[in-house]
TrEMBL record:
Coiled coil: none
One BP annotation, GO: xyloglucan metabolic process
Protein name: Sortilin N-terminal domain-containing protein
Gene3D superfamilies reported for this sequence: YVTN repeat-like/Quinoprotein amine dehydrogenase
Organism of this sequence: marine sediment metagenome
Leader peptide range in chain numbering: none
């Protein structure tokens, strides 16, 4: 059986914290005493990089860009203040690089700092950022313009293969059919110079069902650099929603589990 138990805990701040700003920038109201100001700095993603050091971490924030620490969180440094967008939805490490210096970030995530629906992005959705020097410098990937109107909520990089999972459409008045770009899973086999949408099909088949890809994970073992997992939400058939796996860098997919699942705890 599942029971709710309250546990007294004390948390210590370990990184950048939300800041309040004037109402005319963005309406807000999702934090205590925040109804008259914007809220920025929400941590969206955390990435540990043990190859750079046991105390090295990166965080991506909804409105504040990418930050890093090399002392376990005592001090933090902003890394992307000069980029076109500070809205970071996802971070990933390319484990095929033994130095741990190859990083990728997905840009564009919905902010809760809004008076009401539709919720807007924390910054411009501009695709992907890429670093090959441990986060000191970041550059946009040119091929990511293929999905620059969508939130990249999951990223994975393994050598020349880069995958990007997109979810939200940027204009809430448009549907997937007339929004220009289609949400789903995008793949590049040329280090990000170009991307294409992974074809979909109706299972049983060797592909993904049509729908938003809401999560993306790469196998962390460099020996399994062609293995990726993607969570897909089918808008038409809930039985097709689930997690799919590929062992050949996205050429073929099969269900890992689909439909509803039971969690025992």
């Amino acid at each position: 059986a599942i029971a709710q138990v309250q546990i007294d805990q004390n948390f210590i701040s370990q990184g950048p914290s939300p800041k309040f700003g004037p109402l005319q920038i963005v309406g807000s109201g999702d934090a205590d005493n925040g109804a008259n100001g914007t809220v920025a700095g929400a941590i969206q993603t955390i990435l540990l990089d043990p190859m750079l050091g046991p105390n090295t971490m990166f965080i991506g924030s909804t409105n504040g860009g990418i930050w890093s620490t090399t002392d376990g969180g005592s001090t933090w440094t902003p890394l992307t203040n000069n980029q076109a967008s500070l809205s970071i939805a996802s971070l990933a490490l390319d484990t095929t690089d033994p130095t741990g210096k190859t990083l990728i970030a997905g840009v564009g995530v919905t902010t809760s700092g809004n008076w009401g629906p539709p919720l807007g992005p924390g910054g411009r959705p501009t695709g992907l950022l890429y670093s090959t020097d441990g986060g000191a410098d970041w550059a946009p990937l040119a091929g990511a313009t293929a999905f620059a109107d969508q939130s990249v909520i999951g990223v994975a990089a393994r050598g020349q293969t880069i995958l990007a999972a997109t979810f939200e459409e940027r204009d809430p008045t448009l549907t997937q059919a007339n929004n220009g770009n289609s949400y789903g899973l995008y793949i590049s086999t040329d280090s990000g110079s170009s991307f294409s949408l992974v074809p979909t099909c109706s299972p049983p088949c060797a592909g993904l069902p049509s729908g938003p890809v809401t999560a993306l994970v790469a196998d962390p073992d460099p020996a399994h650099s062609k293995t990726f997992y993607a969570a897909v939400t089918s808008p038409t058939d809930p039985t097709q929603s689930g997690v799919y796996v590929t062992h050949d860098s996205g050429a073929h997919w099969k269900p890992f589990f689909t439909g509803s699942t039971t969690v025992n705890g």
